[in-house]
Amino acid sequence: MKDLRREYASRSLDEADTNRDPVAQFRVWFDEALKSHVIDANAMSLATASSAGEPSVRTVLLKDLDAAGFVFFTQYDSAKGRDLAQNPRASLLFYWAELERQVRVSGQVTRVAREASAAYFASRPLDSQWAAWTATQSSELPDRAALEQQFAAVQQRYPEPPVPCPPDWGGYHVAAERIEFWQGRPGRLHDRLLYTRHDDGTWTRVRLAP
Questions:
Q1: How far, CA to CA in Å, does 36 sit from each of 1, 78, 96, 97?
Q2: Each residue of 83-102: pLDDT tens digit?
C-alpha cells in the first residue's frame, strides 16, 4: 500500500475564481462533476456520532440543495437516525476522484418538513417505495430470505401507486456552517479554501495549508 500514489495536476483552486457564497460554489463544482460524467456525483459520506461520541460513517445520496444546506433521506429509526436524534450534527464528504476534488460540509441537522418528505417519496421508483416499508434499516435479519419475504408482503399490501410515505421515513437537512473545497495539486501542495458561516448569515473564506 505504501507505493500506491498518484500526482494531482489537472486543476487549481484560486480565490479569484471562486464564488463568495460557498453553496453557489458547490453548485458550480457539482455541475462540473455531472458534465464530467462522474459516477454517482451526488454520493456523499455522512458522518454522525452518538451521544457518547462514538463516530459512524456511511455513504448516502444528496437529493436536494438550498441556500442553507444539503438534504438526504432515510429511515428515522436507522442507525444514522438514532445518532442524529441524540446528537443532531453531521459532516458530509463529497469525493470526485475524476476531478481530483473534495468538498467537506459540517453543520446542524434538522428533519425536513413532512410534506416535503412525502412529496419526494412519491417521486421515487415503486421498488424504492416498497423497500422503505420492508424493514427497519440497520436492524438484524436472520437471512436474506426473511428480507425478501417482508418485501413480498409489502408488494401485496401496496400492489400499485400511490404508496404512502412511511411515518418513520423522511429527509434531513444539514445546515452548512463550514464548507471546505479541496483541489489536488502537484507535490501534495493542495489547494484548500474554507468557508465559515456567521450568525448573521455571512461567510468568511480563508486558505488552509494542505
A1: 29, 33, 10, 11
A2: 999 999 999 999 999 999 99
